[in-house]
User: Which sequence fits this backbone?
């Protein structure tokens, strides 16, 4: 477990570069890679009764899409390099959820790609990588 | 579709002599009908000089019974309810499902409506300051009824093939009785409730709301909308139409997000007004207590005050009507009773907090100036109480009233529709017919006077809560067992907090 890294992916170019970095690092140190995708969600939002009634099936299709479009392709690349890996998709506030996942799988490191948003945009919306750096209990590698 | 609605409404509006004015004509036609229905269904028993409507008695006895039977769950469960809403017990692996908070928020925004602003004023006008006391007592007792009905709502909901869920009294009545080997009776009760809720949705969750929203708009406009109720009604109906038939969900989503903030905004300003009436607070509070037991100046005395208080409380928090269990049923949990706990916060927020605040705004204003509102009643009276201290407040209040009314109407259109689909299936054309009827009543609500609307709404509420509470008595032992099992799991540590 010592040598597990958590790779946060979101399907962007940055997360692709992070995957490349993860492959390189895992090959060097023989690490296991946990590929994590967080679907942004808050338990404290306000919904209509209809949205609530359909929530369960929505959630399943969201997870399915995240798996098929983002997580599985990443896992295939890792497997192609003969690396030990597993995937996880979870709903929640991104940075917080990634930290929880890192704790759960005992990751020694979190890898995340940089989105490269301008100052104003990240000021308004915050950046997951920025939040992680401030709050993660393990070292965070931000891949440019 | 829009043309059908338009023709339908024009037909209704031009049914009488044109010279009498459209609003007046419609009112003249509908008022006697409403009063008649009100008298028949809303049977009153004269006791000690007061008229005790049977429906109130029915609901009070139910609420008192459930409070004792569940061992004062409304007090005991309060802290646990808050922990559940905060997500202390939420399993991270089920993140993305409807949370307890979301289910509660949705149910509350269906509940917090004009009743909290206008209904309280009606209670105080008719039942005196003492009605406020009974309103709070009713809210407290109603928490137990909610607990029972929402636990059942989750336990006996249906999971549809498309993954969506349908729950509510029609399902728990049918399945609950089937479990006890009373198939036929269960079917009858389920159908009875389904009929009640889809017709009842047209009163409490529809006409009463649109009526009071119009009244407040007219007050702000300085009476410029007099006689134009039909126009305001048509516009309101068109917006509701756009959401529930046109499928413009963004309107509903925006409303759903704005309503909680409006409720907080309303409470903050209400507290400011109460504080501005500072010197009147002690007198207002003492009036509430003395009025509750002496009923001074109220028809029927203390009993009269009690009846009115209970009646308005039920009208506002819907405990015993079963509507909220339709909304709460969407939550995903292995323990149905958790949703019961969460739901008991609903009458607390709605009645004990918001209604009481409104009552104090009116009460303190009355102490300062007994004739502050003139002849006004309902939402107009509340508005006048705010205006005494904050002259510009009626405008945002009108906006808030409109939003409250709107979100309640959207929620109730969903509740009514669930009753309708329970009876007639998921057929789209039939659903559209129901939605059209619903829109027509939104328009009608703006035209008819408040009195007949209250009569008809109260009568329809009766129709819904008879099968519901009757069923609750039979099914309460199931809820009690669930509650005890859950408590044992909590005590043994089988159910743990995820957050610390």
Assistant:
């Amino acid at each position: 477990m010592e040598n597990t890294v958590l790779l946060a992916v979101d399907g962007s170019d940055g997360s692709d570069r992070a995957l490349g970095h993860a492959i390189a690092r895992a090959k060097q140190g023989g690490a296991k890679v946990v590929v994590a995708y967080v679907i942004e969600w808050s338990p404290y939002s306000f919904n209509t009764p209809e949205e609530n009634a359909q929530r369960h099936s929505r959630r399943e299709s969201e997870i399915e899409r995240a798996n098929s479009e983002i997580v599985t392709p990443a896992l295939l690349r890792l497997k192609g390099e003969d690396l030990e890996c597993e995937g996880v998709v979870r709903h929640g506030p991104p940075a917080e959820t990634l930290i929880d996942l890192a704790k759960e799988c005992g990751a020694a490191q979190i890898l995340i790609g940089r989105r490269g948003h301008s100052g104003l945009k990240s000021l308004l919306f915050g950046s997951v990588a920025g939040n992680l750096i401030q709050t993660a209990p393990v070292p965070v590698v931000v891949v440019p | 579709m829009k043309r059908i609605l338009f023709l339908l409404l024009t037909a209704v509006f031009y049914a009488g002599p044109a010279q009498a004015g459209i609003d007046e004509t419609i009112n003249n036609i509908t008022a006697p009908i409403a009063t008649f229905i009100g008298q028949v269904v809303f049977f009153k028993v004269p006791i000690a000089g007061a008229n005790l409507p049977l429906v109130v008695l029915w609901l009070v006895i139910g609420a008192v019974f459930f409070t004792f039977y569940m061992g004062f769950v409304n007090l005991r469960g309060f802290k646990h309810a808050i922990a559940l809403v905060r997500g202390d017990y939420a399993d991270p692996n089920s993140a993305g499902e409807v949370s307890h908070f979301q289910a509660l928020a949705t149910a509350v925004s269906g509940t917090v409506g004009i009743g909290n602003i206008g209904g309280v004023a009606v209670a105080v006008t008719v039942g005196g300051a003492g009605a406020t006391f009974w309103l709070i007592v009713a809210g407290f007792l109603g928490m137990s009824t909610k607990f029972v009905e929402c636990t059942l709502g989750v336990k006996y909901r249906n999971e549809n093939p498309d993954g969506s869920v349908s729950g509510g009294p029609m399902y728990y009545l049918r399945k609950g009785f089937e479990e006890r080997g009373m198939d036929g009776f269960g079917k009858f009760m389920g159908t009875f409730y389904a009929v009640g809720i889809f017709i009842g949705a047209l009163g409490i969750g529809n006409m009463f709301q649109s009526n009071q929203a119009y009244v407040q708009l007219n007050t702000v406009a300085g009476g410029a909308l007099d006689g134009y109720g039909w126009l305001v009604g048509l516009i309101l109906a068109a917006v509701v139409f756009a959401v529930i038939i046109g499928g413009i969900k963004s309107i509903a989503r925006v409303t759903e997000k704005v309503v909680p903030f409006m409720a907080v905004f309303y409470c903050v300003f209400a507290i400011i007004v109460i504080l501005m009436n500072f010197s009147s607070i002690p007198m207002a509070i003492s009036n509430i207590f003395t009025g509750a037991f002496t009923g001074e100046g109220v028809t029927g005395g203390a009993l009269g005050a009690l009846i009115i208080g209970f009646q308005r409380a039920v009208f506002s928090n819907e405990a015993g009507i079963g509507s909220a269990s339709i909304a709460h049923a969407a939550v995903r949990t292995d323990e149905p009773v958790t949703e019961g706990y969460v739901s008991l916060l609903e009458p607390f927020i709605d009645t004990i907090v918001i209604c009481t605040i409104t009552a104090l705004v009116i009460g303190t204003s009355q102490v300062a100036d007994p004739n502050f509102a003139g002849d006004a009643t309902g939402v107009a009276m509340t508005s006048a109480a705010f205006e005494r201290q904050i002259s510009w407040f009626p405008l945002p209040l009108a906006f808030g009233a409109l939003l409250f009314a709107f979100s309640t109407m959207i929620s109730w259109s969903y509740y009514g529709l669930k009753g309708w689909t329970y009876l007639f299936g998921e057929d789209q054309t039939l659903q559209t017919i129901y939605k059209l009827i619903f829109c027509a009543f939104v328009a009608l609500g703006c035209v008819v006077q408040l009195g007949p609307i209250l009569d008809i709404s109260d009568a329809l509420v009766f129709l819904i809560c008879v099968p519901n509470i009757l069923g609750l008595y039979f099914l309460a032992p199931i809820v009690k067992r669930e509650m005890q099992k859950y408590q044992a799991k909590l005590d043994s540590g089988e159910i743990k907090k995820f957050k610390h």
